[in-house]
Amino acid sequence: MLVNRTRERLSQGEAVFGCGLQVYRSSEIPRAFASAGFDYVFIDMEHGAYDLETVHDMIIASNGAGITPIVRVAELLYSLIARLLDAGAQGIILPRVEDPKILEEALSWMRFPPMGKRGYGVNTTMIGYEARGFGEIIEHQNRNTLSVVQFETTVAMERADELLSLKGLDIAMVGPADLSISLGIPGQFDHPLLISTVDKLIEKCNRHGVVPGIQTRSLAMAKMWTEHGMRFVGAAAEHVLLLEKAKETVSQLKTARVAAPAT
Q: Is residue 23 exposed (0-12), middle (13-18) or buried (19+ Cβ within 10 Å)?
C-alpha cells in the first residue's frame, strides 16, 4: 500500500512544496511535477472546472509517479470527500472553514472508525491489488491521509485556537487571496496587516502541533513564507508556471534575435 511521503516529511519536521492544478485537464502534469521534485500536487475542485473522472486520472498518475495527490473539495460534503479518498487521494483540503462544529464533523469523514466516520468501501484497485485485511487497511489509510483546512477569513483567524485544537487536523493552510479581501486589503499580499495576521496563525499552529501552510501565487511569495516558518507551501499553479516560463523563453529569444549579426 502506498505511503504518504508528504506526511512522512512533515512528521520529520521538514518543509514540503507543491503546486496547484487548476486549469489544464492532463494527468501528465502531475508526472512532470513529480519529475521536477515537487512533494505534492494541489488538485483544485473548488475553483477548477475538473470533474471526478479527470481528478481520478490525475490521482492515479500522481500515485504512480510518487507525488502526493491532495484535492480541494468545493464544499464540506461527505459525498465529495469519501469518493475522492476512495479514488486514491492522499489528502483533502477543506475550504472556507469558520465553524468548529462543522469542521469537526468534516474531519471525521476522512478517517475510518474508531478515529472517524468514513465508510468502508475499499476495493483491490485502491490498495494496488494487494491481499490485505480490514484492520491493516484501516490503520494504513488513517495514518496516511492528510487533512488540510483553509484559513481564509478574519472570523477563522479569530477562532483559530478553537479550530486548531480539533482532533484530526494536520495542516492549517492560509488562503491569502480571500484573507486579504476579508481584511479589507484585497490583493495586497505584502501589506503589514496580512503579514502580521498570518504570522500570528503560524505561532498558534506551532503551539497546537498543527503544520502551518499557505498557497501562494508566485515563487517570491512562496520563498518569503517559507522563511517565515510555513512548512506546507504551494507555489502558484500549472498555468502560471507555463506562462511565466513561456514569457521568459520568448523574451530571451527576442534578445538573441536583436543581438544576432546581420547577414
A: middle
